[in-house]
Amino acid sequence: MRPDTMGRTAIAVLPGLTLCVAVTAAASLVQAAEERLVHHPYVEALVIAILAGIAIRSVWEPGPRWRIGIAFSAKQLLEVAVMLLGASISLSALVASGPALLAGIVVTVVVALIASYAIGRLLGLPARMSILIACGNAICGNSAIAAVAPVIGASGDDVASSIAFTAILGVLVVLGLPLLIPLLGTTPTEYGVLAGLTVYAVPQVLAATVPVSLVSTQVGTLVKLVRVLMLGPVVLGLSLLAPRLRDEPGAPAGARKRLGFFKLVPWFILGFLALATARSLGLVPDAALAPLTRTAGILTVIAMAALGLGVDVRVVARVGARVTLAVTASLAVLLLVSIALVRGLGIS
């Protein structure tokens, strides 16, 4: 990119990025106040940033001047944060969990895909919409929906409705999942597995697990990454098994377009795995861990503020009750299957 182009891009990003940083600063101040008053942050800055972003978005819709920086914060900064987190995680933790957990993750994704698709069809939703909801629910929310849509020839309305609900329910899962800890009596490791299996987006796993423990964060992130890596096989499978969907009348022109490797496996996941591998091999010095972890944490809060600014709770009133029921029921099935897996494996 030429220097003048980079300069224009930086100027365009600045307003929205500044807004996200301001929300992050306010959230951090609230957390600091909690720590001074009760010596423990019952609501972390990550969650406060999401709620603050949603509150702002509910009363004010950012214009074009702000959207570029908000989108940059929600995507690029979020991806960098996830990649940097890899430096603090050893892959030996996942390997030590044994093949049972790895097999359980695959089974959970497959069961969630089948159940979610079946629920959508039973409720009378079109096949494309049912597939989008199933993939978003079982794998990684908006990223899965965006990757699957061109393969099956989904319409813009289908994609918008699916993404709207995964955005809203994704935030609700982040906020509500920690409430299950006392109800289920989960250990930090069990909760990490549960979060990794149920939370939609990789960075949202951080929001759901950081307030609990470092162990929960590490385990949850690794489990979630295994889930995300299944996006590649699922998309490839759909491209082979659903040609009729792509050829139906009304399918967009790009439906037959081949997806590149980095569309199936995002660069930040490769970066996460590379840093995790380097950490496992002792190539990341201990002195670098604290700065990397701190940077990842700050970027994650900024990204969470941006995600909150992108959630419009009023979209619920503009979509059908069947979509609402399908997405909610699919999430309930995923949660139940995940709890059964955690209990069945006897993870401690």
From TrEMBL:
The chain crosses the membrane at residues 42-60, 72-94, 100-119, 131-153, 159-181, 193-213, 225-243, 264-284, 296-316, 323-342. The keyword Membrane applies. Keywords: Cell membrane, Membrane, Transmembrane, Transmembrane helix. InterPro entries: UPF0324_pro. It is a multi-pass membrane protein. GO terms for cellular component: plasma membrane. It is found in: Cell membrane. Belongs to the UPF0324 family. This is Sulfate exporter family transporter. It comes from Methylobacterium frigidaeris. The lineage of its organism: Bacteria, Pseudomonadati, Pseudomonadota, Alphaproteobacteria, Hyphomicrobiales.
